[in-house]
Design brief:
Blueprint (H helix, E strand, L loop, with lengths): L15 H31 L17 H5 L3 E5 L9 E5 L4 E4 L4 H4 L6 H16 L1
Antiparallel strand pairs: 1-2, 2-3
């Protein structure tokens, strides 16, 4: 042997049954850990995490042109998770948080575009007075 190198071999002999049990236990722990990971990932993605989406501020000046483009809206009420009352306005690629008073404008039928914009401007003027 060369100087500085020391080889120590330990021979632990396991019975075949104990060896098989050790392998099964190791595999069982790996499978259990993997299943736990999958379950946690599923729960996390289906609940969108635990953090709710909330508007923390609202816009008080939204034009009729923007309001006309709203596809749908949701009402956010004050609760323990969201402390601001708001309207969540959904457009093609954007989302706005608006003051709840805009719901009256959004409930108007949008059949005639010119009439809708005229009525919208009237309502907005009344709201700001």
């Amino acid at each position: 042997m060369k100087a500085g190198r020391c080889h120590v071999r330990s021979h632990i002999t396991l019975s075949p049954h104990l060896y098989t049990f050790t392998l099964l236990l190791t595999m069982e722990l790996r499978v259990t850990a993997l299943l736990l990971l999958v379950v946690c990932a599923t729960i996390f993605t289906t609940t969108e995490g635990v953090i709710p989406r909330c508007c923390v501020g609202v816009s008080n000046s939204i034009s009729c042109g923007v309001l006309r483009k709203v596809d749908k809206y949701e009402v956010q009420k004050t609760s323990s998770s969201c402390d601001t009352a708001a309207l969540i306005l959904h457009m093609k690629n954007k989302t706005y948080c608006a003051h709840p008073r805009y719901d009256k404008v959004l409930e108007m039928p949008k059949k005639n575009q010119r009439k809708w914009i005229r009525d919208c401007k009237k309502m907005l003027r009344k709201m700001t007075q």
